[in-house]
Amino acid sequence: MRKVVTAQKVVDIAGKYVGAKQYGSVHKGLIDRYNQVLPRPSGYKMTYDDAWCDAFVTAVADEAGANHLIGRECGVERHVKVCRDLGIWLGRVKPVVGDLVMFDWDGGGFADHIAYVGEVSGERFRTIEGNSNGRVERNWFAWNDWRIKGFARPKYGSVAGGAGAGGGNGAGRPLKQSVNELASQVLLGTWGNNPERTRALVAAGYDALAVQKRVNELMKGHLSNASPKVKRVQVSQKAVRFYTGEVMDAWVKGSYFDVLDQKRVRGEMIYLVGYRGGLIGWLHANDVKLL
Q1: What beta strand segments (E) does 133-267 contain?
Q2: Secondary structure letter of residue 41 according to DSSP
Q3: 53 vs 228, higher pLDDT
Q4: N or C: which end of the chain has fewer CB atoms below 10 A?
Q5: How far does CA 50 lie from the centroid of its chain?
Q6: Interaxial angle between packed helices 76-86 and 53-64, expressed in degrees from 0 to 180 and rounded to the nearest 10
Q7: Cβ–Cβ under 8 Å, residues 136 and 18
Q8: Which long-range contacts (C-beta less than 8 Å, at least 24 apart) are formed by 285-288?
Q9: How far apart are CA 291 and CA 287, in angstroms?
């Protein structure tokens, strides 16, 4: 009989890691397991030095067979979008056990921390969170704390899935997605860059050429409307993170990229850059030199 994923199962798995410290064997094991599941979100391979709250959430979901309910990510703001796409984002509501909570510490609109809701008591709830003071910890918050961006409520009660992109269907097979859905994920960087992206799509049972064709169509239509003025940039050697929050690979720094799109967010210009037919990510204006 197939096991059903419950909120309590996920919380119990998360709870067993409480006390694990960054750089310890348990932390390294979590990061290693996160990296083993392909394709990696945004194509990024986590390091032991990275902020790891979302990798913790994802690794727990993988272990519980719940990644098809929770999503896989290492960037919290991107995980908010994943939750919206899954239809589980609720915003600022009173939580229940098993919810995901996203924090925006400075109130700037960008989600920068994520945790599981492990306990609820009256107007307060208790988290289970990775990368809290360098370890997995439990912490109490008021449900309407101003630093909370919102909650997501996975649709527990589904049959446990596998640890692949998009989760599973309870029989070890990946959930099939449409070409449009896959193309949108490619544009977000979820499937990484070529040739890794093509291999990952084929391994998951998809037609990589059809997906790329749709990506090209979407980009052509998008760029015809966007008409970016900046054509090319060089990334600063001092850059640390992409606009979406993930740590920047060393090879990106100092490199030159084509600008695929640009937009103004909260008064700041950001640029979507690409390389050899693949997407790299969104960059802050102050992290690039315009060419």
Answers
A1: 135-137, 140-142, 148-152, 232-235, 256-265
A2: G
A3: 53
A4: N
A5: 14
A6: 40
A7: yes
A8: 286/236, 287/235, 287/236, 287/238, 287/239, 288/233, 288/234, 288/235, 288/236, 288/239
A9: 13
* Domains along the chain with CATH numbers: 7-152 (3.90.1720), 228-291 (2.30.30)
- Which residues are within 8 A (CB) of 287 and not within 5 positions of it... i.e. 6 or more apart? 235, 236, 238, 239
SS3 assignment, position 262: strand
For residues 72-93, b (16+ Cβ closer than 10 Å) or e, as one string? bbbbbbbbbbbbeebebbeeee
Confirm if 123 and 49 have CB atoms less than 8 A apart.
no
Q: How confident is the model at residue 151 (pLDDT cuts 50, 70, 90)?
A: very high
Dump pLDDT digits (tens) for 175-226: 456 777 677 667 656 666 667 677 777 777 788 888 888 877 766 655 444 4
Tell me how far apart the alpha carbons of residues 66 and 14 are, in angstroms, rounded to a whole number: 12
Indicate yes or no: pTM above 0.70. Answer: no
Nearest to 80 by CA among 63, 57, 96: 57
Tell me if residue 27 falls in helix, strand or coil: helix
Alpha helices, H only, 179-252: 179-188, 196-203, 208-226
259 falls in which pLDDT band (50, 70, 90)? confident
Q: Which of 141, 146, 130, 189 is nearest to 165 (CA)?
A: 189
